[in-house]
Amino acid sequence: MTANSTIEEPPKRFGLESQVKRNPHPDFKKVENSRPPFDDDLNWKYTQIPNKDWKIGSGANDPTWSEHKKITIDPYGENRNPVDNYKLLIGAITPRPIGFLSTISKDGVTNLAPFSFFNLVNHDPPIFAIGFSCNKANPKDSLRNILETEEVVINIISEWFIEAANFCSTNSPFGIDEFKLSGLTPLPSEKVKPPHVGESAFSIEAKLYKIEEFQSKAVPGKASGTLVLVEGINFHVRDDVVNDQLNIVDIAKLKPVSRLGGITFGRTISGYEALRPDYEKDVVNNDAAKEFL
Ligand SMILES: Cc1cc2nc3c(=O)[nH]c(=O)nc-3n(C[C@H](O)[C@H](O)[C@H](O)COP(=O)(O)O)c2cc1C
Predict the structure, then answer these.
(1) Which pTM value belongs to this model?
(2) What letters, b where the CB count within 10 A reaches 16 and e where it falls short, cover 159-192?
């Protein structure tokens, strides 16, 4: 089955804010006020995995998945607006970590903005990927600063400053300092010029490693996005959030905020542990595995 939504007007470029229509609520404050307040007492807890007695070869822990049909979507199918792909993908590829980027312009103006096309992609050297929904010719301020200075600090957002961090996504003109607008605290970095965010429990000083621009398929001849790979060269971690060996972060204290679809953010308040399976032990030397080989 194929589903395509109708377009009102052809897209100008990916991520164009006026086309995204992010806020699903005609009266956002009314909806927000109708919800229970933020529950600060919800602290991290471990539970068991959904089926702790799962057996090799037994598939999903819930068989009801087979009661549903799948809809196939061609991202460039007739009448499909690429903005629908953007909205679909940011809802499906979740939860996404958020890189809260601190940069500095050539003239020394600091800039802060959140980016959830973000992840760790290698550890030796530590390489991080950041996706900008813009091109190099018409860059967002953070990208412009990275292109000009080749430096950035990635800060992890925790629950205790989510409102201020979200405010830094404002479409302010180049030269406006979101540290000031948000009330967040710039602390000097050691190996790069951009400061790190004092409120953040984990920050990474980084230098530009590689840049790749993506060509739009919807608007031929237009670059629609820019991938920036950066190398982490210095870390700052809050002392109560890391162990004495400086290699394990306490998730209960980090309280990282993730990005879900639309304008929804995620909390990290529950988890379960699972052992990593070993082929020799769990398959070769497991009689129950024979019928699945
Ligand atoms: C949680 C969150 C995640 C975001 N992720 C991205 C992203 O991955 N890529 C992007 O181009 N913009 C993203 N944005 C939008 C930018 O933050 C926004 O365009 C901001 O104005 C850019 O600021 P700058 O011009 O100072 O760099 C995100 C916004 C929010 C609130």
Answers:
(1) 0.94
(2) bebbebbbbbeeeeeeeeebbeebebebeebeeb
